[in-house]
Amino acid sequence: MKQGHFEYLHERTWKSIEAILAREADAENRKRLPTLYRALCQHLALANERRYSLALIERLDSLVMRAHQRLYQQRASHRLDPLTFLGETFPRSVRQHARWLLAAALLFYLPLLSMIAWLQVDPDLIHALMDSDTIASLEQMYDPAQQRIGMARDAETDLGMFGFYIFNNTGIGFRNYASGLLFGIGTLAILLFNSLYIGAAAGYVTQAGYGAAFWPFVAGHSAFELTAIVISAAGGLKLGFSLLAPGRLARLDALRHAARETAPLIGGAAAMFVIAAFIEAFWSSRGDVPPNIKYAVGAVLWTLTLAYFWLLGRRRGA
User: Fold this and answer.
1) Which has the closest alpha carbon to 153: 161, 145, 163, 142?
2) Within its chain, how far is the Cα of 33 from the centroid?
3) What is the pLDDT of residue 159?
4) Contact call for residues 30 and 20 (beta carbons, < 8 A)
5) Where are the domains of the chain?
6) Per-residue pLDDT tens for 271-291?
């Protein structure tokens, strides 16, 4: 579509937004700002993709930022409501970034599953990936004879392990996201490292005969932890891409725009890491719960997690 026709089709929408921002619109039209804002964001994305004139892109980008400020100033208390964020904003943002989520998922799960399979064929590979102390630690953590399975119990209580898991897991997520500032290379490196490390650990303990303790242990919290890793990496990849391909925008402006759009991803991923840490500390580590029950709980949590992202945050009629 040529730029002139594009402007002709959407100028009325832009004028309506400008009137609302200038406080020249009546109350009925002011209520339309959320709908108009979403349309405006689509128009800006299309203008960037089709490489329309810099003047048009700058106009739309400025209008998006002004409308965003007005909209979210009006909804400050609504935006900061945790229930609204988790029930609407977060799942909707995940769906909006489906392409980045798919890319991150492939980069994470394919090496992980490949490493698990490889170690079943060549178990000696583990010695090229981990030192003897790490291997011994894995054997200790997932020894079925232990009353508490999982992380070596340096902490004296489950509450202490809960804090450790929060610190460790959220650290992975924030590094995944923030490393996108290195043009996405940092996110790729951290994501692949964690993928290969987790795959190596899972593959080794399975091949060594500790799978009966390991797989029931990870079944419960894996839905939240692994999904949060992928989501935080998706945000980091988008940050990196905004620097590599800013379009007609300056790199800093493109980065700011990407950061605004991906902020819900890292916020929601942090919440998922906390939930995963709670399950891991107080449920997954219990050695007195039959494996079949742990598998059943894990299946339910995976189903609920997928349903959450598929169903929540949809507007009526969507």
Assistant:
1) 161
2) 28
3) 64
4) yes
5) 3-80, 83-311
6) 999 999 999 888 888 878 899
